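In response to a reviewer's request, we include the raw inputs and outputs for one of the modeled complexes. The two entities were modeled together in a single run.
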Amino acid sequence: MPQRFHEGDFVRVRDDYPIGHIRTPVYIRGKQGVIVKDFGAFGNPETLAYCLPTEKRELYKVRFWQQMVWSSYKGGPRDTVDLDIYEHWLEKAE
Amino acid sequence: MSTHEHHDHDHDHHDHDHNSPPQPDDKVHSYYQILGTAVKELLIEKGVVAADEVRRMIERRDSITPANGAKVVARAWTDPAFKARLLKDANAAVQEFGIDMPTTHLVAVENTENLHNVVVCTLCSCYPRDLLGLPPSWYKSKAYRARVVSEPRAVLEEFGTSLSDNVEVRVHDSTADMRYLVVPRRPAGTEGMSQDALASIITRDTMIGVAVVEPLQN
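The model returned the following structure tokens for the whole complex.
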């Protein structure tokens, strides 16, 4: 059972590369961010895409600092990128 | 094709073919376009959907324009209570305009003096179609999708939008069930304008976040 997160929790995206209909972009895998919103539970696209029986997964808005995502990022240190990520792709970070 | 294969009349077929203007149905269809057409034809043949239902749905989708989004933003600019409702629960707020989005979750994000929002879908082309209509072709291009997330300031510059380093640029990558609408900043000099007049200056690109609403020129 994946754990629940709360606003302000630091999380890391799983650095994992399974095959299938994955809605977690490759560029964000392994990166660290912070939970900014809990949207509630949504059908898991990884099974929905194949019309398989699905389970609800908690969906979070996660904010990442661009300089931590792209090593050569050109822009202010405050610039961010927000992604919507399902709970089973997130792990607790320090 | 067969009419082009006999060589007994006098104009040059080669030049003719190349000089005629491109026609909308000239292009070669991709594997997925053919697959889509095949599935549609099967669904119609088996009576699951009627051809007219498909046509009507396409016609309805094609008829939606960014004027929908502009009305919503103009109201948010002039009615603080509505803006609060829009930022809290955008689906409920746009329902006040008769815009019903039963299967997508709309999130409105507000630009401020210190924050500029810009929207992308790096995985496909998710877009708030009920408010903005069909996405422009650049929004679906690989170049926009890859670059706006990794070098948003450079992409915004190419759209003619220069932002100070003091402004936080926040990219929203629509990776899941949420669709994002940017509420641009209301420019100075528009204080006395009606909601309808304001809606007329709010454009598609300002609600995607690649542009800002220009101050009025007198």
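As requested, we also summarize the result in words. Chain B has twelve helices and four strands. Chain B touches chain A at residues 105, 122-123, 149-154, 165-178 (CB under 8 Å).
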